[in-house]
Amino acid sequence: MYKRVRLKDTVEVPPEHLADVSRDRVRKLLQDKLEGRMDEDVGSVVSVTEVHDIGDGAVLPNRPGVYYQAEFDAVTFDPDMQEVVDGNVVEVVEFGAFVGIGPVDGLLHVSQISDEYLAYDGENQQLASTESDRTLGVEDPVRVRIVTKSIDERNPRDSKIGLTAKQPGLGKHEWLEADVRRRAEGAPAEGN
After folding, report:
1. Could you tell me if 96 and 110 are in contact, meaning their C-beta atoms sit under 8 angstroms apart?
2. What is the pLDDT, as a whole number, of residue 91?
3. What is the pTM of this model?
């Protein structure tokens, strides 16, 4: 999920900073340019950590800055398909729950939460089972599996990650703990 990668990119150093084309200055410019950006190959750039090499600068016509090719290390977030992750519910809507998994949110569709029917309770910002006392609300910790991933580099907010909690060992942490207690007592676990 989180990875340290070595990347290369070009950064523009504005005229007022040309006297200080240091690794620290280039790192700060790369952070401003790249952090939070999504890339199909490396995922979301969380942090630019260290600049290793700065190439020769190039001047482009009608551009005030000087462009430098830099090689640097970055921490990225790139969830893998079928990866199991823990996160917290950040929003509950009629069709499911959005779960914060690192720097992005994934959608846990209502059909992928439980075998029980879950009704939307807008007043309490939760999904509630009509068959048991189970509810899923904002800030609830959950364990989910990534089942779909569509990254939009041009508009990262349009990237989509689909989640499921309908497999053994997945779901709201409270439900998982209750199932473990039931099994220890010899009773069958409730449906996820």
Report:
1. yes
2. 96
3. 0.74
